[in-house]
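Dear support,

I submitted the protein below through the web form. The confirmation email said the job was done, but the results page showed an empty box. After a refresh the structure appeared. I'm attaching both so you can tell me whether what I see now is the final result or a partial one.
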Amino acid sequence: MELRRKNCGFTLIETVIYVSMLAVVLVFTINMLLVIFSTVGDFKATRRLNSSAEAAMERMIRETRSAYSVDDAASVFEAHPGRLYLHKKNPDTGAEETMEFYLSGAALAYKANGGAEQLLSLPEIEVTNLVFRKLTGSTVSQAVKIEMQMRSSAEQYKSGNFYSTIILRGGY
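What the results page shows now:
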């Protein structure tokens, strides 16, 4: 009587082929996951930078528009770090107010009426360049140009340049 052997498993060559195919699929999958996580981190850093810059610029624009004059003696123009000192009137009471924008370390800060310092930029955002330029085209109106460069100091390095020109509406 002759016994026949049944084929009950894989050969060594088949096992090596399956393992190598699985390794290729795993390497491809891990690489795609790393790219996705890197892109998400990059996007978050860009979003933090842009939202911080937008909030800071909007505050400076709003306060500058409502001012009636710029204090040339207290302001620093055409140089980094710039300082902008504004005079304005409270629309409700008519009382004189001041607003000052400047760098405090690497953060953008302001003081209202000489009070406590308030930060406009997020802690993980550094302002690397802040320049104010006073523009005068006529004796009636004044304008200020703001040039600001910010960079994210968090896990993903991002930087951006932000510009705005504002006419002081309170002066006419």
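Response: this is the final, complete result; the empty box was a page-load delay. The chain has one domain: 32-171.
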